[in-house]
Design a protein that fits this description.
The complex is a heterodimer of chains A (409) and B (220).
Chain A lengths: L2 H9 L1 H12 L5 E6 L6 H15 L3 E6 L4 H14 L8 H17 L4 E7 L15 E7 L9 H8 L7 E4 L12 E3 L16 H10 L8 E5 L8 H11 L7 E6 L6 H14 L5 E5 L5 H10 L2 E4 L8 H8 L4 E4 L4 H4 L6 E4 L2 H13 L1 H18 L2 H16 L6 E2 L1
Parallel strand pairs in A: 1-2, 1-3, 3-4, 4-5, 5-6, 7-8, 7-10, 8-9, 10-11, 11-12
Helix pairs in contact in A: 1-2, 2-15, 4-5, 4-6, 7-10, 8-13, 11-14
Chain B lengths: L5 E17 L2 H10 L2 H9 L15 H10 L2 H8 L9 H17 L13 E17 L2 H9 L3 H14 L6 H6 L6 H9 L7 H13 L9
Antiparallel strand pairs in B: 1-2
Helix pairs in contact in B: 1-5, 3-4, 4-5, 7-10
The chains are: A alpha/beta (409), B alpha+beta (220).
Chain lengths: 409, 220
């Protein structure tokens, strides 16, 4: 059985056939994706499914991974923070190191291709050091909100962009003007991954029991790192505002351990202090591979929160919507693309707003269920990996044939 | 003469940010005056491809943004009534939009602004259409096909067809016109106020219309 056939159960036979038909126009094209790690992180997660699916669709796709030193990754972590707008302090030698590692990798990696997708800032200078006839077209895929970057970091990265024919951002609000076309391709989820696949009821109940959560009482959930931008204290405040009206209500804050993140550890301490002795409020530290536990928690929640103050695309919102849960989301980043008032949940601006909207959803069961169904349908149409592939193919076809405005291929 | 089968097409959008956004009404007016045609095309004509819910009140992005972000219901209502399919060109559409927005701005003491985070990010798009390989030989087979058709195909055969034909017809009724038994159906299809509906609603309306015609097997 082909990998793609498994997705027919989710998106339908005809949707998969359409993908084959579109991909036929690109058959045999050699496509290389380059990023900085094969394991861990959202980009690697995407490439792990994207490469085999592109291959099944007749595209000669492969995945190359940059090699760097610990110092290199310290610098690129600063690039990441700087692109997101945090002030960073990098010296000339840091930029030189990045440039040099890109040069070394350009000699080592197999970049002979019609199209090379360069993911994020780590490999951004590869085109500088690759012979012109090796690559038909360079495309920079920026997964980060680069709308308000640190000036120094942006100046350095921007200087690499003239080598690219196009860039891709997740949403228009994440872009900043550059000289080449800025395509918009939102990320997606894999509906068959451990985090999103259907799970047996027995497993769901076992997970709740193991995590000491009462399956018979309503539960609110936020899945996120312990980070101030995710406003975990605001979530607790909203829960406390609701508790007098729903004595049986439970709150679960699920995130990863924060040993290597000093700020995360501090936020976690604050959250634990704030949670106090409340037995209905669980702060869960789950390992990075606890995908099925997260899945079970999301499927068990009555409402899912993502009360961020600042957010990237917010794939945790997509995951919750996919499980038929209305989402109470902070009005920022990609949450605003996914949470639509009265349709898939509510955008909120304060803990009181979150409490108020949850109270509404708990009062009107039918509306809550309908919004949950809307959310599922919405993700099925717009945020599954099949749409993601279609967008990539459409973009490449569009670049291949720049005229006219409407293109029949 | 035998009727050629209906050619089923699907489509997808290549969307591009143009690196420009609007925070207030004056910026919107300036943008409408100066942005490339593909931007107006996207926000006025192609938004059904991104429109997800039945409860959205306005059929285009500009009206919706004025309602939701600027809090200007008067302008939202006026822009909601601008029907781009009645315009023969994007230049004509641009002129109508400028006139509508300028008129509203003229009488304002204060320029309406949106809150931070609710800016209108301007996007251009290009429609990439492709033959699905499916050929539909009969009206009855067309019904079965429309029932399982992607909303993108529906957009191509209704909205995009109206653009191609200067607002005259959709592809379904153009093809059905060749069958003597389908005259009423053709009229019914052309009377659908498609711009007012989102794609799911349009899908349902077309199926309902098909079901009212005797040649069509009952769709379950």
């Amino acid at each position: 059985m082909k990998l793609l056939d498994r997705y027919e159960e989710v998106v339908g036979h005809h949707e998969i056939q359409r993908l084959y038909r579109l991909a036929e126009r690109l058959a045999g094209k050699r496509v290389v994706h380059v990023n900085s790690t094969r394991n861990g992180g959202g980009v690697a997660e995407i490439l792990r499914w994207m490469i085999p699916l592109m291959q099944e669709l007749g595209i000669d796709a492969s995945w190359e991974v940059l090699e760097g030193t610990a110092d290199f990754y310290r610098v690129t972590k600063s690039f990441h923070n700087g692109l997101q707008g945090l002030p960073v302090s990098l010296k000339k030698r840091d930029y030189d190191l990045h440039y040099e590692i890109n040069r070394e990798n350009a000699e080592r990696l197999n970049l002979h291709a019609d199209v090379v997708f360069v993911h994020d800032p780590q490999p951004i200078y590869l085109p500088q050091f690759t012979p012109k006839d090796q690559v038909g077209r360079w495309i920079w895929r920026c997964h980060i909100d680069a709308s308000r970057p640190d000036r120094g970091v942006w100046k350095y990265l921007e200087a690499a962009l003239p080598q690219y024919e196009a860039t891709i951002f997740s949403m228009a609000a994440f872009t900043r003007p550059v000289a080449c076309p800025m395509f918009l391709i939102p990320p997606s989820i894999d509906p068959l991954s451990d985090k999103n696949c259907p799970i047996p009821e027995a497993e769901r109940l076992e997970t709740l029991t193991r995590l000491d959560i009462d399956p018979d009482r309503p539960m609110l959930l936020q899945v996120s790192r312990f980070d101030r931008f995710k406003d975990p204290l605001g979530v607790i405040e909203a829960y406390r505002l609701l508790k007098p009206y729903h004595a049986g209500l439970q709150l679960v804050l699920a995130g990863g351990p924060a040993e290597d993140d000093p700020e995360g550890a501090e936020v976690l301490r604050e959250v634990l202090d704030w949670a106090g002795e409340d037995k209905d409020l669980k702060v869960l530290l789950l390992p990075p591979d606890a995908h099925r536990d997260i899945n079970a928690l999301q499927r068990s929640a009555i409402v899912v929160l993502q009360k961020s103050i600042r957010e990237g695309f917010g794939l945790t919102v997509t995951e919750a919507l996919w499980k038929g849960k209305p989402v109470i989301g902070g009005a920022c980043g990609g949450i605003t693309l996914q949470v639509h008032d009265y349709h898939t949940g509510f955008l909120v601006h304060s803990p009181a707003g979150a409490a108020y909207r949850i109270r509404y959803l708990m009062r009107y069961n039918d509306k809550r269920l309908r919004m949950g169904q809307n959310g599922y349908d919405f993700v099925r149409e717009h945020f599954l990996l099949t749409r993601h592939l279609r967008d990539y193919f459409t973009m490449v076809l569009s670049l291949d044939r720049p005229e006219p405005d409407s293109l029949v291929v | 003469m035998a009727v050629e089968p209906f050619v089923l097409v699907d489509c997808s959008l290549a969307r591009r940010a143009i690196g420009r956004n609007c925070s207030n009404l004056r910026e919107l007016l300036d943008a409408v005056r100066t942005v490339p045609d593909a931007v107006l095309e996207h926000h006025m004509l192609r938004c059904p491809l991104e429109d997800h819910f039945e409860m959205y009140e306005f059929p285009n992005d500009l009206a919706r943004w004025c309602w939701e972000a600027l809090g200007d219901p008067v302008l939202a209502e006026e822009l909601g009534l601008v029907d781009p399919y009645k315009e023969t060109s994007i230049a004509g559409l641009r002129s109508t939009l400028i006139d509508t927005i300028e008129d509203r701005l003229w009488g304002q003491d204060r320029i309406p602004w949106c809150r931070s985070g609710f800016e209108l990010h301007l996007v251009a798009s290009r429609l990439v259409a492709y033959d699905t390989g499916e050929r539909i030989p009969t009206p009855a087979a067309l019904v079965e096909t429309v029932e399982r058709m992607s909303l993108r195909s529906l957009f191509f055969h209704v909205h995009e067809a109206r653009r191609r034909t200067g607002g005259q017809t959709d592809d379904f009724s153009f093809w059905l016109e060749q069958f003597d038994t389908c005259k009423e159906l053709v009229t019914g299809l052309r009377e659908i106020d498609f711009y007012f509906l989102n794609l799911s609603q349009l899908h349902k309306e077309i199926l309902d219309l098909f079901q009212q015609h005797s040649f069509v097997p009952t769709v379950t």
